[in-house]
Amino acid sequence: MPARNTPSSGGHLGAEMGEQAEAAMITPSMLEEEEQLEAAGMEKERQMLEKARMSWDRDSSEMRYKRLQHLLEKSNIYSKFLLTKMEQQQLEVDVF
After folding, report:
1. Degrees (nearest 5) of the Cα angle 35, 37, 43?
2. Alpha-carbon distance 88 to 22, whole Å?
3. What average pLDDT score do residues 22-30 get?
4. Mean pLDDT highest for which of 11-15, 23-27, 66-70?
5. What's the CA gap between 60 and 49, in Å, rounded?
6. Longest dimension (CA), the chain
7. Structure letter (DSSP) for residue 70
8. Separation of alpha carbons 51 and 45, rounded Å
9. Nearest alpha-carbon partner for 34 in 42, 46, 45
10. Does the structure show a pLDDT above 50 at 1?
11. DSSP states of 3-65 as a string?
């Protein structure tokens, strides 16, 4: 049985025609503006990513520096502990 033109099928055709008319209304200046906006958006995103990377690098460097300070402090404490032990042993040897 052939399909009939019902109001619902006419609505679908009308939507397609509206899309075609809209596509015909896009001017070269509109396309150029869209390209400029896209380029500006990409540049802004690139700058944000670069800023985030620099922040990460800085934070990472600070964290490494703090870890190094902590390890040096622990090493210094251990060295003092060993020196004290060695001095005690030396005193014990001198007593005998």
Report:
1. 100
2. 93
3. 79
4. 66-70
5. 16
6. 120
7. H
8. 10
9. 42
10. no
11. PP--HHHHHHHHHHHHHHHHHHT--HHHHHHHHHHHHHHHHHHHHHHHHHHHHHHHHHHHHHH
